């Protein structure tokens, strides 16, 4: 029987009702007590790493999870991390960069309703996660509502219903039907994982709104090493408000600037319109193409944790990791 490590970090799945709203309080052992059938699937050991609402999760917690995986990696066949849904997609992306090429499954799951509620998705998600962690499913993924989503491609797209996550610009890795994993895609992996232990958190995100000028970008760039701009459509910047000068000046000062889109699916293509073309051709900004914003945030933190060299950082940005970017980059 496979040996799986359950790493608890909190979230709705582990929450109890209090007079001040739902609070993660249940331990990993208490979660397991709700699913006795698990003993027929795998052997489970537990680590209670955190017990947080994932709104309170920080990059320091991502590093804690990566260290925990590294510490226990050799002794287990797979890993299940229970986590709040609100920032699970960011954590899944971050772990995809911090633990690369893992031949063993690293599965994140959680729930929209606490495990103690009559109508809960916790039990099915947890059992599915253990099933997947016991399979040959390399790398980091999210198992939720019977779907398996690659860690670099997940986004929370529904705040209440059980189908909380979507796979963005990439197919599901598989589905679970009646407790059987039907795998559509097998992730590439190495013979052994590569662990990283550094992140630079000075990465900011600006969502454009019509009429905005450069002041907000200046504010963020003064305080950070990289800025992601979620622009409109396939991508571009307003030709008023000083944005082009802003981008040129801050890039000359050594900052990384990435253009992406606030449209949920299909990604950016800066070359299409005049408002984007010049940014790419004359200024050489980076562009996210089909990457999720969650993955861009985590990838920039990982890259800037390794290097401050601009050319090397740009090369790393366009290097596909865990299938995070597929766009043919020239
Ligand atoms: N606020 C909760 C969290 O992210 C929501 C959930 O887990 O579904 O921790």
Descriptive overview:
The protein has helices at 28-33, 59-72, 88-98, 122-133, 215-223, 243-252, 274-283, 293-306, 310-318; strands at residues 3-10, 15-18, 21-24, 43-52, 78-82, 99-100, 105-109, 139-144, 147-150, 154-156, 165-167, 174-177, 180-183, 194-195, 203-207, 226-231, 256-261, 286-287. It is of the alpha/beta class and 330 residues long. 46% of the residues are buried. Residues 10-12, 53-55, 84-86, 110, 112 line the site of aspartic acid (ASP).
Secondary structure layout plus pairing:
Layout: E1 3-10, E2 15-18, E3 21-24, H1 28-33, E4 43-52, H2 59-72, E5 78-82, H3 88-98, E6 99-100, E7 105-109, H4 122-133, E8 139-144, E9 147-150, E10 154-156, E11 165-167, E12 174-177, E13 180-183, E14 194-195, E15 203-207, H5 215-223, E16 226-231, H6 243-252, E17 256-261, H7 274-283, E18 286-287, H8 293-306, H9 310-318
Parallel strand pairs: 1-4, 1-5, 5-7, 7-8, 15-16, 16-17, 17-18
Antiparallel strand pairs: 2-3, 6-14, 8-9, 9-12, 10-11, 12-13
Helix pairs in contact: 2-3, 3-8
The chain binds aspartic acid.
């Amino acid at each position: 029987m496979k040996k799986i490590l359950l790493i608890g970090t909190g979230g709705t799945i582990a929450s109890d009702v209090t007079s001040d709203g739902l609070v993660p309080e249940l331990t990993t052992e208490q979660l397991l007590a709700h699913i006795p059938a698990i003993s027929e699937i795998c052997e489970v050991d537990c680590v209670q790493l955190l017990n947080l609402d994932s709104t309170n999760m920080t990059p320091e917690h991502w590093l804690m999870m990566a260290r925990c995986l590294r510490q226990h990696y050799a002794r287990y066949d797979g890993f299940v991390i229970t986590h709040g849904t609100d920032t699970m997609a960011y954590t899944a992306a971050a772990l995809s960069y911090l633990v690369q090429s893992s031949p063993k499954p690293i599965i994140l799951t959680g729930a929209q309703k606490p495990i103690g509620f009559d109508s809960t998705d916790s039990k099915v998600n947890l059992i599915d996660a253990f099933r997947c962690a016991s399979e040959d499913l390399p790398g980091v993924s999210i198992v939720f509502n019977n779907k398996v989503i690659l860690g670099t491609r997940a986004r929370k797209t529904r705040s209440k219903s059980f189908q909380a996550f979507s796979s963005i610009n990439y197919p599901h890795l598989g589905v679970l039907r009646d407790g059987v994993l039907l795998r559509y895609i097998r992730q590439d992996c190495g013979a052994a994982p590569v662990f990283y232990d550094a992140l630079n958190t000075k990465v900011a995100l600006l969502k454009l709104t019509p009429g905005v000028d450069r002041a907000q970008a200046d504010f963020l760039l003064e305080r950070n090493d990289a800025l992601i701009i979620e622009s409109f459509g396939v991508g571009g910047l307003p030709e008023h408000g000083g944005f082009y000068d802003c981008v040129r000046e801050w890039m000359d000062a050594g900052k990384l600037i990435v253009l992406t889109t606030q449209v949920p699916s299909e990604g950016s293509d800066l070359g299409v319109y005049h408002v984007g073309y010049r940014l790419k051709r004359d200024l050489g900004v980076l562009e996210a193409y089909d990457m999720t914003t969650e993955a861009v945030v985590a990838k920039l933190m990982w890259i800037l944790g390794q290097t401050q060299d601009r050319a090397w950082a740009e090369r790393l940005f366009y290097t596909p990791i865990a299938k995070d970017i597929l766009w043919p980059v020239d």
